[in-house]
Sequence to fold (922 residues):
Amino acid sequence: MNGLVAYISRRIGITLLILLAVSFTVYLIFALLPYDPASLTCGKNCNDPGIIEANRKRLGYDKPFFEQYWVFLVGLFAGRTFGEGAATIYCAAPSFGYSFQQHACVTDLIFDAIPVTIALAVGSLILWLVVGVGLGIIAAKYRGKIWDTLSTAFVLIGTSLPTFLTGLILIVFLVIKVDWSPFPAGGYTAPDEDIGGWFLSMVLPWVTLAFAYSAIYTRFVRSQILEISTEDFIRTARAKGLSDGVILGKHTLRAAMAPIVTMAGLDFAGLLGGAILTEAVFNLPGMGRLSLNAVVDIDLPVIVGTTILAAAIVVIMNMILDIVYAFIDPRVRV
Amino acid sequence: MLKGKKSLKVALATVTATVLAGGLLTGCAPANAGGTITYLTNAESWTHADPQRNYTGMHIAWFGSYLQRTLTAYDRAEGAAGSAVVPDLATDTGRSSNGNKTWEFTLRDGVTFEDGSPITCEDIKYGVSRTFATDIITDGPTYAIGMLDIPSAEDGSSTYKGPYSTDAANDTASFDKAITCSEDSKTITFNLKRAVGDFNYTVTYLSFSPVPKAKDDGDQYDMHPVSTGPYKIKSYKVNDSMVLVRNDKWNGSSDPLRANRAFPDKVVVKFGQAEEVRDQIILADKDKTAVSLDAILPTNLSAVFDDEGNVLEKYKGRALNVYDPYVRYAAVNVKKLNCLPVRQAIYYAKNFDSLITLAGGQAFNGDAADGVIKPLMGLDYAKTGYATDDKDWKPEGNIEKAKALMEQAKTECPALYARATDPKQGIFYDIPDTETNKKASAIWIESMEAIGVTMKFNYIEPGKYYSVVLDATKQGDLSSGGWAPDWANASTVIPELFTAEGGFPMSQNWEDPAYAEFKKRSDANLTEPDRKKQGAEWAALNKYAMDQMWVIPGVFSKTQEMWGSKIGGAYFWEPQGALSFGDLNIIK
Fold:
């Protein structure tokens, strides 16, 4: 057990170091961009250098790079204050800064957006695992038969249709053209306001996103199962006279599980950074829209915040997967 | 010119009549009260919801209808009647004295904020003071800074820096002298540094609306402005929605402009609608009480309008194709193109036909402009005799006439002639770097080649366009431009575009021999008390600028709007160039 604790602490330590490096890199990249963050905050017709300088001072961009980065890091743990007098702005920890274009602390914007993205990611993850793994098993089991052909067709359509098109088709043909459609044409309902409305607003986005992913998973699971089926231990099991069902459930699937879990974990982590196209088509105010708009509007504090967060999610998810592996497979603890 | 307005009137006459009869004659709750109006927009949020930061007509129309009251406002009526200024928070449309340098307004009894506290002179004064904090309250109009009698610092900025400044040198004393309140805080007096005959139009801007000091938190006020109108904000979330509900502290008897016209119980704005989804919802009438806040996608225009731009039978009464407030043109840098025949040659040679076809056709993009004042401006517009009224002007370009003018230029201004016709030099045209503009430049180059002029294009990244061309050291010979009046008076057009003090001085015409006379008349007209005379003079000055060809006229541009079948009360509110948001209601 000591080995496990040591392994986990080591992984957490490394993860923290990576996170620090990520935040520094992101901050550095944005400091090097050819945009002046101070002149991006003074409106569209800002030609007055005095105003730009006042903004620079208020936002702390007048300080040297390392000091700015240090203030940013401290803000993550202690919060930050911008401006003075009646116009003072305080962003509580963990503070990623203040967006003058959205008139809000970046952390608040992220906290508003992330539940939407989590709901979208979790729902579609469940859907695509059920459909993708299920179809993959069926396709492998009936290899070369009609079911296999049908699932290949599903894979082809799913992987070639972009999500914004799938989403648009669903909205037009299941919502707009159908009078009795229970689904809204996009938009998000908070679950604490109306849980039924929330569910209905999420169904089509889940289906849209899961459609693309389950196609990939069908293909992946099918090939995994077929590959493992040719391994010696499966042949041994079959020679022992075990039924097909037992072999599939107890031996083949278990062996195929590890790579599927890895892939699902990383895909899930990627989605938490935002599913830009799906969120845009269905008008869901999630992380994807937040980052996309920040990029379009050159809203630097939001770009820094969402980029660091998205990177952090992937790094942390990697750590979790590594730790899960340690439980599954004792060899990695060494 | 009247084509657009006529079709609009035919389409809307019936609904408007119902609304007015139903709403105003009963005298109590309006007939079509109740329900929820849903606005759909591709935008992720309002550009600004802070009254001091709202600038465009559409935003002023929306916020002014539902949430913010000002001392005076435009009447809510169709056609030219809408451009009349009526009292709003004030008891009348203002009293001027001291040769229009002092303006006084008295507040009505019973006007309140959404928490029930009375609106005082101090609240309006505080609201105006926020305009001066140009580093925080960005993007709003700055008329208060330009007009109030407050000294300027050496760099030309105001010595008063707004209410947030903690600098001891902040000139609050001058601001306190420029706006004074009576002892009962009911009367507000504005002391101006120059005569402004139409200051009661200026105060229709939401930047002159009251803000309670205790609720102001600078930049963040943009997310929760306090209401003075018939509705208040229940929730506002960027990327998501804004929900308005009735303001129970609003008292219709203190608000004749909006009384009996606060129709829906709830107003919802859905932000971030995918453009195609937004249009499909309205085209298929999925949400019958939805209104699009954006123009219809060009690809969907043919589903709604015929080739002439008239609304198809299926969509009668729920779509508009009208003139927006803009005039689009090529601004001329007169310092560089300092020769009238050359400027005229460019005007005659221009291939209007090809350019307008490229931009979506006349039915949707607009008509050939004969100046910088739009016919929508009513009093201030008169035909200048250019474009379609000019017998020498041809839609496809009059090469013969242009060539003759270039011959004239050869002797009158040989230096410019030599530069314009030298393929190694040529004349430079600034234009935003877009796909359509690249195609437009090819059309221009071809027209100019036909008269022996070399035209070169300076493609500028669209986001930086105006910051480049408004810099005199970077501006080319011609620059693509567009301008809409700030209120229904060409005092916000003619001096803004053609005088050195103007807010959009791309013409660089102050060394032109014709400038002195023009400037004298323009300055005098700013303080002309008789609105009719003033309008006629703006129209004359518009013609004057055209005679000098200080701009190459482009189009009086158009916009297309759409709404659901259960929406009544829709018309184009001319002074704001937007839908009549406040009169929209749900047909029972």
Notes: The longest helix of chain A spans residues 106-141. Chain A touches chain B through 45 residues (CB under 8 Å).
